[in-house]
Amino acid sequence: MAATDLQPIQEADQPDQPAMRPRGTRGLGLSGKLLLLTVPLVMIAAVLLYVPAIANFWVNRLNDRVAAANTAALVLDAAPLGMVPDSLSRQILKSINARAVAIKMGQQRRLLASDNLPTAIEHDIDLRDMTAWEAITGSFRMMLETGNQAIRIVGPGVGNAQFIEIVTDELPLRQSMYRFSRNVVVVALIIAVLTAGLVYLALHYLFVRPMRRLTASLVGFHENPESSAGIIVPSQRSDEIGVAERELSDMQRDLMSMLHQKSRLAALGLAVSKINHDLRNLLASAQLLSDQLASVPDPRVQRFAPKLVRSLERAIAFCQSTLSYGRAQEAAPDRRMILIEPVVLEVRETAGLASDASIAWVAAIERGLAIDADPDQLFRVLLNLVRNAAQALETHASSGDGGVQQIRITGKREGAVAILEVSDTGPGVPQKTRDHLFEAFQTSGRPGGSGLGLAIAAELVRAHGGEIHLVEGTIGATFRIVIPDRPVELLSIRNERQRA
């Protein structure tokens, strides 16, 4: 066998080379993006707080002017005959930063004091029914204007006065609003920096560091997926990060186990490929000797020689396939209607149970039961199950447990479906192995076992369009095989009948 014998296995086992990916992150990492996102969000919150704050400050300043004007109106109205010296009037108006004060009582509007009245009033501000939106727009309109315009403020009066009016300059009020805004901006910047820092630190320790840990584990596991050092150790967190860590750890362990299994399959296929040529030659020589042995006239030799020849032919066919399970799928079954009883008898003799009195053999098969199957592949399926049952009984007996040791094969037909069952009275299948019962290298519990018997049997049964499963609630282990007949084309049957 030359290099061509090894080429299919090497091509099948060689994984696709993944594209090179850059390691690490480029540009801003998650922490930097988080900081850049936190700062503007805090500033937006500060702006949203500033808008009602400046409007409230503006309204409060106007109310302060009205309150001061009401106090001045009481003083001016209390003078005898309403006569107040001009010097006192100017002094009172200066103290409340006003140019004129007037009140309305009943139907009479009365000017209490005035000093240097402007020729025009730029804006009228009525505080009696001002809404929140009018307060916001009015405050920003005053801040955006320039110059020193005169404004008239109308507010509720005291005593018998219906309302009070005050004429004042806009510039001092605007300057106080500028000072308030500057203080708010400074405080907002300090709060924004502190808040952004605290939020950044909290999110960094709660989310960014665990995400970096997950990312580092993914990168390390990608570089060497067959090493257990790259598997993340889950934390005790119960939130989504903890769930992600635990799921990632389980996924990495499962993937590492699958990679180890694939390596074993590759090594097994390569080893069998190397010995296939020599083993096939040895079996061919044994076949020649068995052909010569078949010509011996001894009745016992004539009885066993055909079975020996048949076994050698099967062995040569197995070697020729070069452990097809390890490198590819099984060949398509050559199905035909066969009687199951001769196959079961040959399985018993091949497994060495015909002469073993310690294990009882029971075959309860319907008379004349025929199955639409490949005889060689069905033989392999039953032989794997029977050998597993015999080994389980031997292990059970060596452990000192008594009881009847028995292997039972039953067969029946239900319509277009043939059903076979192979059962034993052994210890049964452990619960921990049932989840991976028909997977390679997962179910062998004895020394020297390969763990391939059930996997090969399941693959051969599935190739026939059937199914195999473990029957629950039975003594020992019972495997049920269901093989349906192939669908028959009516047109082909009619043509055959016409030709006949």
Notes on the structure:
By secondary structure, this protein is of the alpha+beta class. It has helices at 3-13, 30-77, 86-95, 132-144, 170-223, 240-294, 299-321, 324-327, 340-350, 375-398, 453-463, 490-499, and strands spanning 100-105, 108-114, 123-126, 150-156, 163-169, 336-339, 360-365, 370-373, 406-414, 417-424, 467-470, 478-484. It has a 5-stranded mixed β-sheet with strand order 2-1-5-4-3. Strands 7-9-10-12-11 form a 5-stranded mixed β-sheet. Strands 6-8 form a two-stranded antiparallel sheet. A hairpin with a 2-residue loop joins strand 1 and strand 2. The protein contains 12 helices and 12 strands.
SSE map:
Blueprint lengths: L2 H11 L16 H48 L8 H10 L4 E6 L2 E7 L8 E4 L5 H13 L5 E7 L6 E7 H54 L16 H55 L4 H23 L2 H4 L8 E4 H11 L9 E6 L4 E4 L1 H24 L7 E9 L2 E8 L28 H11 L3 E4 L7 E7 L5 H10 L1
Parallel strand pairs: 3-4, 7-9
Antiparallel strand pairs: 1-2, 1-5, 4-5, 6-8, 9-10, 10-12, 11-12
Helix pairs in contact: 1-6, 2-4, 2-5, 5-6, 6-7, 9-10, 10-11
